[in-house]
Amino acid sequence: MASAIPTFVEILACFLLSTALLNRYSDMVNNNIVTVVGVFMSWFFSFMVIFMLPNDLTSVAYRQCLINYQNSINSTTTTTTTTTPLPIVNEPSVVISNSSSIIPQHITFAMAGNASHHDVLDIVYQDQPSNTTVNPCIVPWNHVSDTVLMKLWRFVYWTSQFLNWFVLPIMQSYSMSGDFTTTNKLKSALRANLIYYSSIGAIFFVLLIYVVLRTGLVFSNLKVIAISSSNTWGLFLLVVLLGYGLVELPRFLINRSKHFQALNRQYFKVGKLNAEKCEAEEKLDDVLEEIHQVYSAIGNNEHSPLKPYLNKILDKCPPDWKRRSSAFRRQAASSNSVYEPDLSKTPNYDLQALIRLHKRVIKAVHYHRQIICRWNHLIEEVIELEDIARNYLDNQGPQSPRLFKSTLPKQRSIWRTFYTLKVEWYWKCLLRVWLFRLVGLVATVFSAAVVWSEITFPFASFAPRLSIFAYFVDSFMETQQYFYLELFSTISIGYLAVCAFYTVFNMKIFNVYYLASNKQTDEYSLSFSGMLVCRLTAPLCLNYLCLVNRDSRFTQQNSTRLETSFTAIMGHLDLIPIINSGLNIFLPLCMSAICLAIYFDFGTRILHNLGYEQFIENDEMTGDLVKTGQELVEREKGKLLRNYEATTGAYHDMLSANPSASSYVPTSATASSELNEP
């Protein structure tokens, strides 16, 4: 008997996962509520699609079984049946009014033929005769009717698209606008997205003209064009991000099991990031110097209409700079106790000039904040890796105590009662290493299976089981092992999502987009991540349906296969043959090429030869940056230890009293303030 509890648990899991991620990356109290809610909904609906798609596959398997059973009954009866029933789970036992075949009572039927399979036929309830053939079809343990799935997919998809193409882009531009009022910020955001919307509209208009000339103007075609345009853009994006993640995620897991190699890579990143950090500080200083000039011109005129706007600009400046500039402002105020406006300077600054200055300040502070967040996180990670490597080497002997000793002091907590120094050593120096290796090996096998299945997709019409994923899914469907079907599909879709979202959550784009943990991600980066997740989810699920031969194109070529409710909402691409025929061959080949390029580091070597610093083993430039990174880490560790000693005054006493006392890397919030001290 089907139950709604598993579906409720899946939805609750999506809610909790979205909440946990948002709590990790976003300051939900101080960030704009519209941005926070929009990003939460985009993540929540995207995770719902990923978790609910296996339910759609089990529903298809069950309905396929019922169709095969009905066809087998019809082939043995003398009564001619004019329709092919398509079942949808609902109640306990019905019979089609125009057919003599009897089916279990928990089914209603829809017409297959030319009519939609959601047009339910008239049914007549009756008791099942004792001589009726037993129905072999088993109701899935978490069955959801296709009517419910259709409504769910329609709501989730179009809500996600509204967030993706309208709400989040506007809120992203809103967060970087230099205007001072909400209305003007919204106007600026709409103007900033005008080119974006114009390009999307132009593509839609070209496709619309093509479809009208080919098939005529039909309202249902407009939906297909809109979905096709969005999904095509998402597929191209997915090819790049998924191709990168399929290689880099297993490589990252395996490399993390190699302490010293991972440490050298992190040293290299520190040396490289230091140059970007200096550049960000210079840009911020240039903008703040301009604020000093504006303040000199109008700051001491309390009657100036521009003074409130200048104060808003000052509120956006970093706290350290505010403290440094307070002396300047006091000096400027004391030298102008009786204020006499400088007519040569004041006219140069109007409201539009302050808006432009405000926008530059927001961008400079945003850029500097991203660099500092990355810097603090990287320093913490390097110190942790150094501690692991040192503790591993110092405890090789059979008589070694194997107690984990950290560089920085660690606060005592109840958790330390169970997570002792010995447990910490075994976990960080031994168990976690083998766990990374095992998970990395499993991820490598999964990635190879995905790439192979992608390559074989163009041949699915005549060799459907070349795909590894299609082989397992078809086997589970034929044997009605719905639990294993859903488990396998959930793991497979989850792995594809992890590979794609791993790239989204770890990449940086010109130091403008970066997701920082410990609630340090700004609204611009949050909105960008929400947009990417929304754009990737539907194409990612369509790609999985291609891997298991349940996509629209394959189901049309094979009339015995039912399509999922998800593909029914997505529509068929037959209206646009160029997309329909080209993507099925072009995109799998592109993904395979990207995977090969990432695996052999072609892009890294090209950038390295062009003069951009990239980590290359046994390279002189790489070695120099590794040494620079080591020196910078030692300097930052010294700052952290001095700051801790200055604030507590008991660091050396603690070490002398207990030499094996554990120590600890501060949280990002603490480290952020400490690492920025001169």
UniProtKB/TrEMBL annotation:
TM spans (from-to): 32-53, 194-213, 233-254, 429-449, 485-505, 525-548, 585-602
Keywords in alphabetical order: Membrane, Transmembrane, Transmembrane helix
Compartmental location: Membrane
Signal peptide: none
UniProt family annotation: Belongs to the LIMR family.
PANTHER family cross-referenced by the UniProt entry: G-PROTEIN COUPLED RECEPTOR-ASSOCIATED PROTEIN LMBRD2
Protein name from the UniProt record: LMBR1 domain-containing protein 2
Organism: Aceria tosichella
